[in-house]
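Q: How would the structure tokens look for this protein?
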Amino acid sequence: MSITATELKQNLGKYLLLSVNEDIYITRNGKTIAKLTNPNQNRVEVAKSLFGILPIDADIEESRKERLDSK
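A: Here is the predicted structure in token form.
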């Protein structure tokens, strides 16, 4: 979503709430000058991308042992 700096000033609370789910690009004189974003969103996206990578029967202790044995 793209909004003007004036619009942001007039409705800051609204755009803070919206920034939880989407990036808000702030413009001045038609040029993007800033981005309002959720600082935790990147972490959530990374975590979501990791689901399904490990097999269901994966064992962390066994993996550690294998890694140490390979050194």
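The chain is about 45% helix and 20% strand.

Strands lie at 2-4, 24-28, 31-36.

Upvote if useful.
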